[in-house]
């Protein structure tokens, strides 16, 4: 297990002043703190803490053991304009030093941050908002650097380059594949696929039988915040899925801590570039 300080752990999340009001809508099972403009704040703190424990960074563990309240107050000091949405990147090193990077982010309906459920339809402004989802042509070996979000991201960068994705602004994603041919995750998102017959009988944590499945952590992917949210709210269940099972043109969902839940389509036959 690596203990080097050559990398940091991080988590990216959205600040959105409209979020607290959206979580008060009926049928939105959203975790506390519900009143926070920081999207899934407690989940981001948990994710960072779990990573610090994995790497045995005692000072980082001590810093991250604070609850969401003090963390939110720290983040507040970095928000340039509380009337706008922002993308935050919380970076923590092995000494427990925290750096918060803040960048502008595109506006979007706050409802897109809520897990998709039948009684609260997800809105898209146009078909052009659907992401193109490709499959990496090479495999990635799972490690603590795929299980946890760190700045050691050469494998993810290489996968995007192989696919021809040049900018994070592109509505394009590449799915990482482990040496056994299993889908691990997306390069910047958690993917969700239509349940195959072999997985459609599983129940979620809330006793539902979801229509969607997401790769289990055993396949090597990241324990994402929106992934945790989707599982706890019955949107999906975990199930191993092979890259060879995917069908060109099939719908999928993607999610991450800045953009929420996004609709995508699997692209197998056409090259991106």
UniProtKB/TrEMBL annotation:
Domain of life, source organism: Eukaryota
Span of the signal peptide: none
Pfam families in the cross-refs: Aminotran_4
GO terms of molecular function: catalytic activity
InterPro entries per record: Aminotrans_IV, Aminotransferase-like, BCAT-like_C, BCAT-like_N
Natural source organism: Penicilliopsis zonata CBS 506.65
Designated name of the protein: Aminodeoxychorismate lyase
């Amino acid at each position: 297990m690596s203990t080097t300080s050559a990398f940091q752990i991080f988590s990216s999340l959205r600040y959105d002043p409209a979020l607290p009001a959206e979580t008060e809508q009926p049928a939105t099972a959203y975790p506390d703190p519900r009143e926070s403009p920081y999207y899934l704040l407690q989940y981001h703190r948990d994710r960072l803490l779990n990573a610090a424990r994995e790497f045995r960074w005692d000072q980082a563990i001590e810093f991250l053991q604070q609850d969401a309240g003090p963390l939110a107050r720290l983040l507040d000091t970095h928000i340039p304009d509380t009337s706008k949405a922002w993308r935050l990147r919380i970076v923590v090193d092995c000494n427990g030093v925290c750096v918060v990077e803040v960048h502008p982010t595109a506006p979007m309906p706050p409802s897109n941050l809520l897990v998709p459920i039948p009684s609260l339809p997800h809105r898209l402004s146009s078909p052009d908002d659907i992401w193109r989802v490709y499959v990496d042509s090479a495999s990635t070996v799972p490690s603590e650097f795929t299980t946890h979000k760190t700045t050691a991201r050469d494998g993810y960068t290489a996968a995007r380059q192989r696919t021809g994705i040049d900018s994070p602004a592109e509505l394009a994603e590449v799915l990482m594949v482990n040496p056994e041919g299993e889908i691990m995750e997306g390069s910047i998102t958690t993917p969700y696929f239509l349940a195959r017959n072999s997985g459609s009988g599983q129940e979620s944590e809330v006793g539902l039988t979801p229509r969607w499945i997401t790769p289990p952590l055993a396949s090597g992917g990241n324990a994402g915040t929106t992934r945790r949210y989707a599982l706890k709210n019955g949107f999906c269940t975990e199930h191993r899925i092979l890259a060879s099972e995917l069908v060109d043109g099939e719908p999928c969902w993607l999610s991450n801590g800045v953009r929420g839940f996004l609709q995508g389509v699997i692209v197998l036959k056409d090259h991106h570039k």
